[in-house]
Specification:
The chain is α+β, with helices and mostly antiparallel strands and 107 residues long. The chain contains 3 helices and 4 strands; from the N terminus they run βαββααβ. It is globular, with a radius of gyration of 14 Å. InterPro entries: Dabb (IPR013097), Dimeric_a/b-barrel (IPR011008), HS1/DABB1-like (IPR044662).
């Protein structure tokens, strides 16, 4: 199959540390969502909590998805000073993290 053309999705799965309060998690989510207003290559942002009944989450509780126009735009975002500063703070609150970038592909 051919790789999808067009936008790139940047997906982050997270499990927050047990001692991170709900208030802190809310603050971090608002900060993450605000990056779309501060970093031009980031075109959209969505997030949610695991609601699956399959119990296959491997401890991950939250998902964050950002949209970009290209792989190059993701690279620009990853190295942007505002993202680097936020990521250092955000990652310090996580027990587990998994990041995947993909191009949506239809069969």
């Amino acid at each position: 199959m051919e790789e999808g053309k067009g936008p790139v999705k940047h997906v982050l799965l997270a499990k927050f540390k047990d001692d991170v309060t709900e208030e802190k998690i809310d603050e971090l989510i608002k900060g993450y969502a605000n990056l779309v207003n501060l970093i031009e290559p980031m075109k959209a942002f969505q997030w949610g909590k695991d609601v699956s009944i399959e119990n296959l989450h491997q401890g991950f509780t939250h998902i964050f998805e950002s949209s970009f126009e290209s792989k190059e735009a993701v690279a620009e975002y990853v190295h942007h000073p505002i993202h680097v500063e936020f990521a250092n703070m955000f990652l310090g609150s996580l027990d587990k993290v998994l990041v995947i970038d993909y191009k949506p592909t239809s069969v």
